[in-house]
Amino acid sequence: MKKLFTLMALFMSTGVLAQEGARYKIHFVNTPVEIVLAEYAKISAKQVDLVQGVRLSVTITHDGVLTADECMQLVEKKLNEANVGLFPIGKDRMVAAWIDPELAPREPIAPAVTEDVLKEMQQRQRDAIREGLPTLPTPRNN
User: Fold this and answer.
1) How far is it, in rounded angstroms, from Cα 60 to Cα 77?
2) Whole-model pTM?
3) Measuring CA to CA, which residue among 33, 37, 12, 48 is closest to residue 82?
C-alpha cells in the first residue's frame, strides 16, 4: 500500500495536497495563496516568490488523482482565474503577481467630500460656534 502524505493548511482554512507516489490529490478551500504557492513550489521544484500586495484566498479542488503536471496546471489555471499569474524569472524561479493590477482587489477608499458638502459642514460648524456648541475639525479637500 502506498504511503499517503497530507499537508494541512493552518488558520481556519482547509488545504490538503496529498501525494500518492507520483500522483496528487488536491483540496484547497479558502486557503491563503501563500500556502498554495508553497505546495506548488514543492511539486515544481522551483522557488516561487510572491509579489508584495498579492493577498487572497483561493479554492482549488479536484475529486480525482492528478499527475504532478496536471496538478501544477490546475493550480496555474485557478490562480489565473483569480487574476494571479506565475511568471518565470529564471530556470528555477517564478514570481506570482497580479496579471492585471487594475483588477486587483483594493482596500476601500473613503469617498471625497464634495464642495457642496464641505460648504454645508463649514456653515454648520460656524452655526455651532455661534451657539456655543462643541465642534469637530472640518475636513479639507486637497
Assistant:
1) 10
2) 0.63
3) 33
